[in-house]
Amino acid sequence: MPTEGFSLDEAHTLEPSPTVLVLVDFINPMHFPGAENLVDNALRAAQATARLKRRLSRHGITTVYANDNYGGWRSEFRELVAYCRDLPGARGEMARLLTPAPEDITVLKPRHSAFHSTPLEYLLRQLQAQELIIAGLVTDMCVHLTAMDAYMRDFQVIVPRDCTAAEKNASKEAVLVQLADVFRCKVPQSSRISVRTLAAVQATR
Asked: What is the residue-wise DSSP string for 113-163?
């Protein structure tokens, strides 16, 4: 029997979003070696991303969370969010800052790139996306590979430098240079992203 209040037509409807914000692995318990070197930078990146997400959301730009399930194949993303929100310190604050809104979309990924073995590309085509703003953790692994895969699929890519973090700042900067020089990504500060221009494109669809 249908669930009360559930509409199949509404469930299948995706409003076009020429620009999409893709958040990679921000919902993260950080239970891995070296996390202590990342956590402060990750929190700063989450704070900048939360500000950017608010700006974009006001203009109807869709946010997609592409997140590891950390091996929990029987778990749901909401359970991971709830777990991370209850963690002490920066780990919990990061999850609280970036808890998905009801209108956000979530995709679980098994490996580093958000495109590998996930429905992300199909989803983005359904959204009629042309440009991706990719933020998340970590710059020199999951963000790097996701941005490269987006480029190979002919998306325009923005990686706001203050909305991503790595264990070592030198590694982060080296990746951003490569993304800009080789893969034609834009790597500005998030405050330099013209939401007004993106919103104008959004309004024409």
From this structure: STTTTSSHHHHHHHTT--EEEEEEE-IIIIIHHHHHHHHHTT-EEE--GGG
